[in-house]
Write a structure and sequence with these properties.
heterodimer; A: 5-stranded parallel beta sheet; 5-stranded antiparallel beta sheet; globular; B: mainly beta; 6-stranded antiparallel beta sheet; 3-stranded antiparallel beta sheet; about 40% strand
Chain lengths: ~375, ~110
């Protein structure tokens, strides 16, 4: 293999490039990114960067030494518009193209919005964060649609800036489908304890100049509105390529697509495991998938399969939330230390006599111990 | 020279945090080797003494950046900057950390 095109220059793309070098590949690597910025880390965009306490430079994933040793051929500020496997070519939005014998699809996705909210802020990119930050001037009233991780973190940051915040959530409790009702109540308590007005079970219908309109007819006054309702995988550029898409890029259990020498990683990768397609939209997943996908790309066949750790973190107010494993909301929750009304606790999710998940609020040490020692993980193939 | 703890208080596989600034994390590896590094992860505010010890590496408890206890160098993202390392001595059953320039509390 003489040249690999990595399409997507965020964490997954960077990790792919690092793994190519780490696994001995010494050919060319073209890193294609739709944003003009050098690769940067997204998690701080809703936290320290939004608060103004972290600089853009501090977000950069690669320093000068990394850039020199990885020897990447950057194509930034251009999108991949098509993949032509027969011609071994990726077409670019500036009219150019890249010939490559291997392709890593790491295009992530775009922030979703809701009908009627096209003009509201979303938060996925550095430019999104800059725009939102510029709007968060003293005295503005903020409304956030969606109480998932992004919504909760932005609410937390806005409160730290002294702003009034309303969070509008369609579910009856935030993150309930992921964490179950008891821990969802903990998340709701964090909001309440820090002065965020969390309203659950509400349907929003649109934006008005005065704020957010609810389906009930009520108006929630707001000067700044942010929608945090998930993302849509960026797969439209693969239409006609032969790569199977549909809620992500479909791959086998080793992150290899139906085309030889084309792999997918990160938020966009929908891999097949245990009879189902799975896709994860988290930092650790993007990082952990790289060694597997690149190993298989260089081998020319699926030698390794991906086993996710399911590790997710979120910083909300004074709390660090950590979750590992793949719990279901109906699993049995067992408190290992502390309890749900404490400022620090650790709980495990139990199912059929096995520990399938670990959750911690402000107790990283015990969390990591349980994550390693108690969590049942599928056998590594 | 700063007193960390007694040898008995730090069995193999364990760590102890000495408050700062700078806060220091002292580790006793499974092989019985003692190392001391800055306790605060260079990526984000997390205590490395709470991290997972594996060989002579410690993994940050929040975001899994891995630091080499011998050199302080990070070996993977999200950390990019090294932590400082300090030499450790044992005298009459007590573990001490050397060369720590105490910083004035901010």
């Amino acid at each position: 293999m003489k040249r690999v095109a990595v399409v997507g220059a965020s964490l997954a793309g960077v990790r792919a490039a690092q793994e190519l070098r780490a696994q001995g590949y010494d050919g060319g690597i073209v890193l294609i990114g739709s944003e003009a910025h050098l690769p940067y880390d997204r998690p701080p965009l809703s936290k320290a960067f939004l608060a103004g306490t972290a600089s853009a430079a501090s977000l950069e994933l690669l320093d000068a030494g990394d850039l020199a040793s990885l020897a990447l051929d950057f194509r930034l500020g251009v999108r991949a518009t098509a993949l032509e496997p027969a011609a071994r070519r990726v077409l670019l939005s500036d009219g150019g193209s890249v010939h490559a014998d291997g392709v890593v699809i790491a295009t992530g996705g775009r922030a979703r919005t809701l009908p009627g909210f096209e003009r509201a802020h979303t938060l996925r990119t550095l430019d999104d964060a800059l725009a939102l930050r510029a709007a968060l001037v003293p005295g503005v009233r903020v409304a956030i649609v969606g109480a998932g991780f992004i919504g909760a973190e932005v609410a937390s940051t806005c409160r730290s800036l002294g702003l009034d915040v309303v969070v509008l959530e369609a579910l009856n409790a935030p993150l309930a489908p992921v964490l179950g009702p008891e821990l969802a109540a903990v998340c709701a308590r964090l909001h309440a304890d820090h002065g965020t007005d969390l309203r659950c079970g509400v349907q929003v219908s649109g934006l008005s100049p005065a704020g957010v309109e609810l389906a009930s007819g009520e108006l929630v006054p707001a000067d700044v509105v942010m929608v945090g309702v998930g993302m849509t995988p960026a797969t439209d550029w693969l239409t006609g390529s032969g790569v199977k898409v549909g809620n992500g890029v479909h791959t086998d259990a080793g992150l290899v697509t139906g085309l030889p020498q084309v792999v997918a990683i990160g938020d966009v990768a929908r891999y097949h495991a245990d009879g189902a397609g799975r896709r994860h939209e988290h930092w650790t997943n993007a990082s952990e998938q790289a060694p597997v996908a690149i190993g298989n790309l260089l081998a020319g066949r699926t030698e390794r399969t991906y086993v996710p750790s399911g590790y997710v973190w979120s910083d909300q107010y004074a709390g660090t939330l950590q979750l590992a494993g793949h719990p279901r909301p109906d699993d049995t929750l067992t408190y290992v230390e502390g309890g749900p009304s404490d400022s620090s606790f650790v709980a495990t999710f139990e199912r059929d006599g096995a520990t399938v998940g670990v959750f911690a609020l402000n107790n990283a040490k015990l969390f990591n111990r349980l994550r390693r020692q108690a969590l049942r993980r599928p056998a590594v193939v | 020279m700063i007193r960390a703890c007694t040898v008995d208080e730090l069995p193999p596989g364990e760590s102890v945090r000495i408050p700062g600034p700078p806060a220091i994390a002292v580790f006793n590896t499974e092989d019985g080797d003692l190392y001391a590094i800055d306790d605060t992860c260079t990526h984000q505010d997390a205590s490395l003494a709470d991290g997972w010890l594996e060989g002579c590496f410690v993994e940050c408890p929040l975001h899994a950046a891995l630091f080499d206890l011998r050199t302080g160098m990070p070996s993977c993202l999200p950390a990019k900057e090294p932590v400082r390392t300090y030499s450790v001595v044992v005298d009459e059953g007590v573990i001490y950390v050397q060369g720590v320039a105490r910083e004035d509390a901010a």
